[in-house]
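Appendix B, record 7
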Amino acid sequence: MPEPADGLHMHWMTREDVFNKTVSYSQNYEDILLARAFPGPEGFYLDVGANHPVFHSVTKLFYDRGWRGINVEPSPVVHRHLCEDRPRDVNLNVGLADRDGVLTFHESLTYHGWSTFRPDLAEHYRGIGVPMAERPVPVTTLAEVCERHVDRTIDFLKIDAEGFEREVLLGADFRRWRPRVILIENAWPAAWEGLIEAIDYRLAIFDGINRFYVRAEDEALLPAFATTINVLDNFVPYEYLRLLREQPGRAEAGGPRTIDGLRNDARRAVRRLRAAARGLASRGRGREAG
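Structure tokens (predicted):
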């Protein structure tokens, strides 16, 4: 950049700046909040409704740091991606419920994060034009998954079950396995929040999409969630890096102005996703009220 005539300097972000920051892969930067509480290179997660191993993943940042864990994903297509990308993890192609059995899974490959075991939610999606395929899927309980695969303390448990959160929690045994932190998507919370409070967990923060809880034994972790994500967390969304990598020549030729443009493109994409999430949450509250 040429020297400004009046000596005023703008410290625009450069490509080097972007690639030297912590990368957030998750939709609402949940991984950055969790990284405050768990900054170390080793740990163990349990991801219920894991979805894609990179796109909107809450655990990708931790896997890259050396963690391992369990990914539960009922979609066979998404599960294959997990198996390919996460060889160090246990990847289970099942659903979770309050008992063992087989349930109808309503799957969307267009918006795979909207796949659900709830027929009423699937019917709503069909009503707005989202294709939903039905398939029988075996389900088990969270307690059974822990019995078979958990060999150490669970640092965090993430539950994103598209309206099936209560059933997942009812299938857990929190007397034996007590994750240090639990984050749950804020869908129909009136149906399940009492279950969390009854097992002695403290609400740490609501980030607009998820509720984060800390077990009573780990109250020292609460300050890590005391403030919302901000510039001091020194991170960059994966969407920015992806756009830069797809258009390296354009970014280098355009300099900081092009990077700002890419940043704005990514922000617009994130805003669209958040608007969709708010719409779902609003519909959930409407269902509760009804």
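Remarks on this record: The longest strand covers residues 133-140. The chain has a mean pLDDT of 88.
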